[in-house]
Amino acid sequence: MTESETPVRIRQLEDTDIGGITALDEKIGGQYRPEIWERRIGYYLRRDPEALVVAELDGKVAGFMLGEVRSGEFGLEEPTGWIEVMGVDPDLRGQAIGRRLAERMLSHFQNQGASSVRTLVDETMTEIASFFDSLGFEPAPLRSFVKSL
Amino acid sequence: MNLTKTYIPKKFHQAVVKWQETYLPDYDFLLDNWDRYFPRDTRFELCAFREMGMCNEIECGEQKGSTKFRQAAEMEHQQGLHVLGAVKAQASTEFGSIQQHQLTLARAQEEEEQFWILRMMAEELRHGYQMFHLLLEDDWSAVTDQSGPEMVEEILSMQTGSHILGAFNVDFDSFIDNVTFCALIDRVGKYQLSMQRISAYKPMAESMPQMLREEAFHLAAGVVPLRRWMEKAAQDSVYITTQDIQKAINKWLPRGLEMFGDERGGGTNVRYGLKPMKNAEAQAQYYQEVGKVVRDLNMRFIRARLPELSLAQAESLLEKLLADGGSSRGISLEELISMPHRDFFRRRGVPAFKMVGWAGENFDDVEAYLRHLTVHLPDGYRAGRDFKDYAQMIRRVASAELTGDEAARTMPGLRRVGGVCPCSRAVRWVVEEPDGNGSGGQAQAAR
Ligand SMILES: CC(C)(COP(=O)(O)OP(=O)(O)OC[C@H]1O[C@@H](n2cnc3c(N)ncnc32)[C@H](O)[C@@H]1OP(=O)(O)O)[C@@H](O)C(=O)NCCC(=O)NCCS
Ligand SMILES: [Fe+2]
Ligand SMILES: [Fe+2]
Q1: Can you tell me the distance from the alpha carbon of B121 to that of B102, in angstroms, rounded to the nearest whole number?
Q2: What are phi and psi of B65, to 5 degrees?
Q3: pLDDT over threshold 60, residue A132
Q4: What are the start-end ranges of the E strands in B300-380?
Q5: How confident is residue B161, by pLDDT bands cut at 50, 70 and 90?
Q6: For A71, which residue in chain B has the nearest alpha carbon?
């Protein structure tokens, strides 16, 4: 199915999507984590709700993307869009849903005055890296460091 | 986001601050503790925001395509009256909801939930301030004899019982009301604001985007605690039962439905390019959306009660319970939440005073109907003034002393005169447009 044939609607995320996103996360990761999504979506909704996007198919959440514009972090003074959490229904991958979610989020970031968009991808998750690669993202010189506590 | 920030003239700004000191005394506590709960969020500020770069042409109705109005004086007289009515009604709801929330704010069991409500209240104050900005920035003399300062004074002196729309005249009985109100009544607000985003009166349209951003959190401040309570209720918590939540929904949903205005109306707003949808259409979407909230709450309950079920199994259990009633796997339909019929307990619009029961059943006997209501409404509410007013009114309708439409226009009666607003001398009462179909439930200033 090509993008134009997919009857998927891309729209702003709403409070009523908490259940749908929890269900999608469960489908992707195998774990039911309602508290996490209540807290996380509560957090994002009070910051920049227009940045948050879901893909809806037949009344169900088929994909979602959370992020926001921030500045002054990691020495990045200019406003930078951050894509932070996302997921597409495993049964619906490869139908440009992820791309459409990202396009909508990126155009919002641009309206917000962001001159670039960033994300962090686990090196072992090559399919996510390929996804961002296809969207025109390039590896950035900023490296992540971690220390166990 | 392209926002410009403004303030209303100092005298009025100070009047709002004075009002806040009376009705939102925890405001300073909110700001002092902001970083504890919202460490990365921009601090709250009492100001007005206008969104720049919005559509310049009227988006619906008879004047579609022509340039939006920048000033009240440019509009047709009736059109101006509609806009003014909407601005005043909106302002009244913002201040009114703070007065309601304040009543029971301190009773919250969880500090986080309480703090969310407190932030929401501050944002409502900003929304009221935003509407004052519209009243004071423009010259409304072509539309009304009332001066800007008089309109501000009128709104600041309203109290629970003298606000323009019914939902804002009902007292809160417990913190369940704070949360249910956010989930249900702020949701109507979301609809009204989204519709007015296209307003032919450009200053109104420009006021909506930032209010809508804030509204998204208000809905979450309702829905998230409700979801958490459903989880606890499923684990047999002694604090908040699903019956408590059900009764709160029964109390508020009818008022929410009425905020869309009479089901036969709203056409004038569409013709004037002020809203894209008629009342009934917006109301139907709202009812469906609340249905989705209720379904999610039920799923939250089932999954917490029966964690061994998969998502699909829990969904089919819910379907089975909804279809067959009774109980299954130790859960009965009564333990879940259901949507009240949309004509239940109505006092405005087409079903006003029609004695429709919770499940849509019809009653002939008014006393039997009132007894039915007592089963479905919260105890604290039944003991209050609003329910008594309603009962008296419906008895008069039942005895044919008044028609349903006449009774609808009388509610709510003005219960408190005057106010504690330092600048107020008296409340000037406002009444709904008599034909019940132009204003979308918004009121017009009585002169
Ligand atoms: C990554 C993800 C969002 C992609 O969603 P999608 O809807 O399938 O992606 P699209 O169909 O829009 O694909 C867009 C582009 O990415 C590429 N792409 C997507 N998935 C890919 C994969 N697994 N391998 C290689 N390329 C891939 C596509 O080829 C496409 O490129 P093209 O347009 O040049 O042909 C989805 O696979 C997903 O949700 N993965 C799990 C996410 C996750 O683990 N989240 C938790 C951490 S935040
Ligand atoms: Fe508001
Ligand atoms: Fe609100």
Answers
A1: 9
A2: 95, -25
A3: yes
A4: 327-328, 331-332
A5: confident
A6: B40
Residue B205 falls in which region: left (phi positive, over 0), alpha (psi -120 to 50) or beta: alpha
Please judge whether A49 and B213 are an interchain contact, meaning their C-beta atoms are less than 8 angstroms apart. yes
Q: CB within 8 A of B339, min separation 6: which ones?
A: B249, B253, B287, B290, B291, B294
Does A85 sit in the ligand 1 pocket, CB within 6 Å? yes
Query: Which of B173, B142, B168, B127 lies closest to B76, judged by CA?
Result: B142
Q: A130: Cβ below 6 Å to ligand 1?
A: yes
Bridge partners for B267 per DSSP:
none
- Split at pLDDT 50, 70, 90, the class of B411 is low
Domains of chain A, each with CATH number or no CATH: 7-134 (3.40.630.30)
CA atoms lying within 13 Å on the CB side of residue A103: 8
User: What is the ipTM score, two decimals?
Assistant: 0.93
Atom of ligand 1 nearest to the CA of A89: 39
Q: pLDDT band at B156, cuts 50/70/90?
A: very high
Whether A45 and chain B come into contact, CB under 8 Å, resolves to yes
CB atoms within 10 A of CB B185: 24
What is the value of pTM for the model shown?
A: 0.92
CATH number of B3-298: 1.10.620.20
From the number of C-beta atoms within 10 Å of its C-beta (0-12, 13-18, 19+), residue A79 rates as: middle
- Contact assessment for residue A127 and residue A136, using Cβ atoms and an 8 Å cutoff: no
What is the C-alpha to C-alpha distance for residues B310 and B290, in angstroms, rounded to an integer?
25
